[in-house]
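Hi,

Apologies if this is the wrong queue. I'm a grad student, and the batch job for Membrane protein YphA (DoxX/SURF4 family) from Mucilaginibacter lappiensis produced an output file that my downstream script rejects. I'm not sure whether the problem is my script or the file. Here is the sequence I used:
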Amino acid sequence: MNNTTKVPQLFLRLALGIGFILPVLDRLGVLGEAGINGNAWGNWANFVTYTNTLLPFLGKSAAGAMAILATIAEALFGVLLIIGYKTKLTALGSFALTLVFALCMAIFVGPRIPFNYSVFADSAAALLLSTIPVYYWSVDSYLKK
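Support response: The file is valid. Your script probably expects a header line. Output copied below for reference.
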């Protein structure tokens, strides 16, 4: 396989992985206050409030638990995609997580919102990544040797 087919899968892994890591850093307050430099939340409390908006049927305490689970999943998926470990499984998990996120956004915030933030596109990209047979420049590729 030539570099023209190797580079797109690497770019897709990196784009999705970084796309998971940056929001995690935002909600943990690492990137600064909400509204500064594109930060959505700026702290954990703002993120839990937003999670409650997306999952209003759960209540605030359950939304807090879901915020923790989502953050762990996003951090884990981000790192695994970047390094390319268990990529197919990670891509499928990323697809499921972003699809649920997009559907909750569409239902509870508004149908245009997940498109404004390309959440359906991220979900589709993760699903597409899961269909690629070989992940070059990855831990997966290294372990196959």
